[in-house]
Structure formats: C-alpha cells, structure tokens
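Researcher: Quick one. two chains, 687 residues in total.
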Amino acid sequence: MVSEPAIMPPPTPATWRRFLARKRGLAGSIILTILIGIAIFAPVIASDQPIVCRHKGTLHFPALVDVLHRLPFASSVIEKSPPFNRADYDPKSNAEQYEFVVWPLIAISPTEITRDALQPPSSQHWLGTDGSGRDIASRMVHGAAVSVQVGIVSMSIAALIGIVVGAVAGYSGGWLDAILSRFIEIVICFPEFFLILCMMVWVQPSIVNVMIIVGLTRWTTIARFTRGEFIKLRSREFVTAAHAIGAGSTRVMFRHLLPNALAPVLVTIVFGVANAILIEAGLSWLGFGVQPPNPSWGGLLRDAYTNIRVAPHMVYPPCVAIFVTVLACNLAGDALREALDARDPTTTRKASEA
Amino acid sequence: MLAYVLKRLLAAVPTFVGITTVTFAVMHAAPGDPLTAGWEEASTGDATTSTNDRLLRHFDLDKPLHIQYASWFSRVVRLDFGQSFTDHRPVWEKIRERLPWTVGVSLASIFLGLCIALPAGTRAAAKPGGWFDHAFAIATYVLYSIPAYVLAMLLIAWVAGGSIDWLPTSNAYSDDFATLAPAAKVLDILKHALLITICFTAPALAFQSRFIRANVLEAMSANYVRTARAKGLPERRVIRKHALRNALIPMLTYLGLLLPTVISGSAILEVMFNWPGIGRLMYEAILQRDYPTVMAVTVIAAILVQIGTLLADISYVWADPRVRDAHGATDGI
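Model:
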C-alpha cells in the first residue's frame, strides 16, 4: 500500500511554457495581468486630474504623479507641480486655461459627488451612478486596486508565516512539530470569517488591517502543504548530502528543501489570492473593511444592496468583477498545478478534476 | 481502533483549551466594553459612576482576567454561556432560538445539493470525455467561481428589482405569520427560505458534484466493477449498485466536515437575507460588543469543527480497513 510519495519538481522555465500553453493558464493570466494593470494605473484610467496638460507654457503630469504616489514614501520624494499640488485646486473648472490637455478615460474622481444619483448607465456615466451620485465606473477601477492590493499583500503575509511554520514543523519533527501542528489545528478550528470579525472589533476597520488580518488567518493551508512536502523530502538523498557537506539546518531548509517543496505551495497561494479578495469584499460589505467614501468592490456591492429596488443595475459591475477575478485565479491555479506536475498527463488531469 | 479514537480525543484537549483561550483573549483585548457599546440606550448617557460599578460587578468585569476566564470556562462545559449584555436573556436561549433557522437551511441545502450532485456526478463519470462530462466540467467550474454572496446579490436584484414580487427576499416569515393557517405557514416559510437555500447550495454543489464524479470514476476502474461487468450485468446496474455505493464511502468524511457549517451558517448570507440564524446573531453581537454571545457562538463553532474533523477521521478509518491498518504509519495533522 505504501508507495513512494509523489513529488512535484521545482518550477523551471519549461513549467511557465507549459503553463501558458494551456488555455486555462493563458486566459487566467491575461485576465489577472489586465486586472493588475488597472490596479496600478487606476489614477490614469479614472481620475479628475489630467494625464498630461500644458499650463502657462509648462507640461504637467498630475495623474501620473498620483500613480507614483501609491508607492510607499513616494509622496515625500516626488510632488505634483504647482498649481496641481494645491488641495483646493480643481483641474476641471480650470480646464479652459490649459493650452493642451489629455484627460483620463473616465474623467471623474471615484469620490466626487454629483447631483445625478442612482442614474442608469449612460454616455456620461458608463456604469451609472450610486446613491450619492458618484460615478460607478470610476469607483470600480479604484476598487480593483484595493482588491489586487489585498490579494497580493495578504497572501504575501500568509505565505511568509505559512512557509516558515510549515518548514520548521516538517523539518524538525518531534515535539516542535507536535506543538506547531496543534497550533495550526487551533487556528483552523475557528470559522475564518468569525475570527476575522472578532479581530475587526479589536482593530479599526481599514484596508491595511484587512490585509494584515486576512494574512494572519489564511496561512494554515500553506503551512500544512509545506509541512507535508518537507516530511516527504527530508529523508531524501540530496538532504543527507547537504548535511554531509556541512550545511546548517537553516540552509538545508531554505536552500535545499524549500525550492523542491515550493510547487504545491505556489498553487495554494494562487487559490488563496482569490479567497483573500473574496474575504475583503465580504468584510467591506458588512462594513468592517474599506470605509466609505473610499471605493471597494464590497462597498459597491453594499451600495447596490441598499438601493436594490430603485437601481438594480448597480449590482452587476461588482458582481461581474468579483466573479471574473475569482474565475481567473481558479483558472491560473489549475493550469499552474497541471504545468508543475510534469508526470503522466492522464493522472494530472484526473488529479486536477478531483 | 479504540486506541486510535482515544489518541485523537486526547490530542483534541490542548486544541480545545487553545480555542477557548484565543476566543477569550481576542474579545477582551477589544477596546470598548458593554458599558460603552450595548448599554448606551439602556443607560441613556446619564449613567452615574455607581451604575457603571454595579454593571461591572454584575458581569465580573472588575475581576482579573484569569478569574473571569476560569469562571467562564467552567460554565461553558455546562453549556451555561451566561446572560447577554444587550438584553439580559441567557445566551444559550438566544442561540437555541436561532439554531433551527440555520440548521434547517443548511440541511435543506445539503439535501438539495446531493439530489443534484449525485445523478450529475455519476452521469459525468459514466462516460468520461463525453458531451455531458464536458458540459459538467464547465458548469461546475463556473459554479465554483461564483461566491455565494455574489449569487445572493444577483438573485435579490432579479427578484426585488424585477417583477417577481411574490418571492420575499428578507426575513424568514411574513408579518402576518401568526394569523396564517398551518399549511399556509409552511408555504410561507418555504417561500422565504427558497433564495437563501439556493445560495447555500450553489458553492457546495460544484464541490460535491466533482467529488462524486472523481470517486465514481475511481471506483469504475476497481476490480469489483470489472467483475460485475464480466458477469454480464447491465452498465446501469454496474454503476448504481457497485460503483456508486463504494464511491459514497468518502462522502462520510465530507459530511463530517460539513457539521460546523450546518450550525454556524454564513454571517454574510444571513445578513443579506435578513435571516434570523446564528450567523446574523454573531454579526449583531459583534456590533454590540456582546461578549458572552460572541464567545459562545465562536466556541460552539470551533468545537464543532473539531468534532467534525474527528468524526470524519474516525468514520474514514472505520469505513476503510486499509486506512485502519495503516493509520499508525501516517499521522496527519
């Protein structure tokens, strides 16, 4: 009954070729790339600041500066050129002063309140307006940035904790493994959403806290996979060889074992990103996440819920966005798992559908 | 077998202590207490210091943490979760009141899910690669990627925003429920439960169908199925009597793991449909910082996860002699 445990080889350039050769992998990664692009360039796509304009003979790039400002500490290094750096300066009402101007595709800020509330989609507001007359298209674009940030940052935190805990437990075994395994078990026992809700009472609702909390609660699957892989691998020849030439425990764990254990962990992380985005939207819907008037998909869903009888059209943009994002992560995760598993293609197929 | 069960039960003790400690610690580290959250209306702002003192003493809030924890722990074991901070009613009574609504919807959704998943998964496995299998793969994939609350929002938009005004999207019964005839009462609850049951079912359905398909497919290549075919049984009978029955064994494990969700429900779905279940009770309790209720629900849910995992593992070992004999070798988390 006991057979040699299957081991996925570490990712190689051939893995990525195999990944992109699959329709699912290609479709998933195209959607995710577009999503990340929208997230990074949100201020250039939807903003009330011009992308480029000539004002009194000099060129200004206020929206591009907004893109750079999303990097941490960037606002202390680079600033908007005057008059765009003034908080009360409204480029739109001064538009006739510009000799030359290129506006973003959606030339309205996500938080700008207009008088047309709950409008259905029109040429002026592509996806209509919400209860406060804010442009839904603009809010969707900036909401994408929130979702992508949450997905990436929280899963980075989760991966860091999960890999370290799983690696230490799987590599050392014995009492340390027993303690860490019990610890993982305790975290798993809590209904995740309840635990997150409890912690949201403890800390102020904000996007940073959502990212930290999702990261602190979603690492268990990663830890279990890492632990399992390490247990399978630690008695292999290459580990003994590494020990024999005098490599220390940390070096063996992270230089020799981890690269070989990474494949299934990577797949878990891709699926985890979808889950993190879902949790963020759910928390924002319940009012524990991103706070209005800041845009987020969960918040948009909440606005739609509030106005569902008068403006059912508001439901579709966030629903479609969340669905497509989750679908893309699932497609990419599935294709990645198949691409990493270079063994017999028939067993691979069966495993992925199980 | 007995040794295995005992070993698992023993291993569950530190987890149980950990669960209760974490719950207790998290809730007590929270800023704000019932004096500033739940009691605002009750004390109408002019509460004197002596009133606050009295409340503090009444709820043991002035005692050191470990004493609060010890007294709470000893009561939890006896299912005495104390009184709610918000309305002074016993927490267990509040939970018991909400429990049937959540359990009812959960069981209905599991039943509905299996009614669809069993025939669909078996049919897909009967001819792998056939047209049904392809349609099945796409359908489960799409279903798997629709989050329950997104589906709920779409359904509410279609029903409430459209013309289907006979279908309620909020609450579990109509306002005039008490005046209805018994048959009309049942119909009223079914009408209210329809949408939330669909939303509970949908995400699990994709998983259940694929699970059944994979298990039937595996059973189809087993020797006893070959034997059944060899003795000339019709294919339909081979699948139903031989393959499907064996494929159902792993479902035991799956149903064990479902136990916690059956009781704890889903906070977001229950809030969306204004459904008077456990999930919404939890949400309301968190907003009001009603410690006893939050801790009771969390502890019950966490313990159920433990029991569910335990039952799943034990039933798996019990149902499969190969695992039973080899369990000493592989001791998973």
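Chain B touches chain A through 57 residues (CB under 8 Å).
Researcher: Thanks, that's what I needed.
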